[in-house]
Specification:
Layout lengths: L30 H24 L5 H24 L8 H25 L5 H8 L2 H11 L6 H18 L9 H21 L8 H22 L13 H28 L2 H4 L6 H12 L6 H24 L7
Helix pairs in contact: 1-4, 1-9, 1-11, 2-3, 2-8, 2-9, 3-7, 3-8, 4-11, 5-6, 5-7, 5-12, 6-12, 8-9
Length: 328
Amino acid sequence: MTSPAVDPAPELQLPDADTPRPAGPGRRIPAAVWAALGIVYVVWGSTYLGIRIVVETLPPFLSAGTRFVTAGLILAGIIAWRQGPAALRVTPRELASAVGVGLLLILGGNGLVVLAETSIPSGLAALLIAVVPAWVVVLKALSGDRPTPGGLAGVLLGLVGLGVLTLPGLSGDVKAGGVVLVVVATLCWSVGSFSSSRLPMPANPFTASAYEMIAGGLAGLGVGLVRGEQHGLDLSAVSGRSWAALAYLVVFGSLLAFTAYAWLLQAAPLSLVATYAYVNPVVAVALGALVLNEALTWPIVLGGAIVVGGVCLIVSTERRGSPPRTGD
């Protein structure tokens, strides 16, 4: 994830691993954190549309695996070029942690969303994923960090929103299988994000991001081959817009936004990072409606508004009541 300079191209200014972290309430949040958040807010919101276009003519796990392996290798090359090969050296424990987090975020979190978007609209997927901060509150509670009353209220509100989004007869033709996949993906993503601050990760967040993407991408390719996605795959029949969307996801969704997210997990409070979850759905739903003519039914609008409201409540109360992230 990019910091002061957010261009993943050769001119990327990789920050020092000791980039200042924002302190508690009242302390000014560094501009680098806001820049990275802006990237995650907007670019990730658009990736749901990109994924939906990719899976029109490309298989889900093979395309997702290719996306992240490509992005991870490019990022590793940039790191080695800008900082020297030594910057990629990690201990076995750090590598194991990065691989584990990569499997949770990339294979479990992203891979299942890609598979789900073969059967449900991109906007609905984004709204379902907005419950990630609710799972983070639950995980913090299980680890002994008692949630605030506002946090608990936000979790309950988010669950109500999920019910409106998925209840048969309310949301219309919603494929239950796709919804279940996204819910499982949110759990994987939440556990991966939560664990990354508690495991012995590589000190350089860009190095960690590269290993996470490569590990998760290779696992995705493996799952795709096991599922037989290569059978009958005719690359000449893949549409130009699917190729363009895949390239967009590699450069912007992975190199830029995922790297920004990985950096934020180490440089900012988790409660602040989680605010992306109520911006992404708005971007995703708007783009899905404008570009793919995805239906905006009243249950999707109402359920989405309830989920986003719950997330806002969680983030606002957790930011007021929680100390800054210092390995938390």
